[in-house]
Specification:
By secondary structure, the chain is α+β, with helices and mostly antiparallel strands. It has 1 helix and 2 strands, in the order αββ.
Length: 48
Amino acid sequence: MLRAPAEYAPDMLVVFDVDLGHTDPQLVIPYGGRIRVDGPARRVTVTY
């Protein structure tokens, strides 16, 4: 998974191992919710 972004879009931020969607435990984000990903801080913020 990480090979393609490294080759084709080296500045792209890749987020994985986050409990969103069809996982257990599950974090549900309603329509209109916003996610902010701060790569350098290694932080994901969800507001809705």
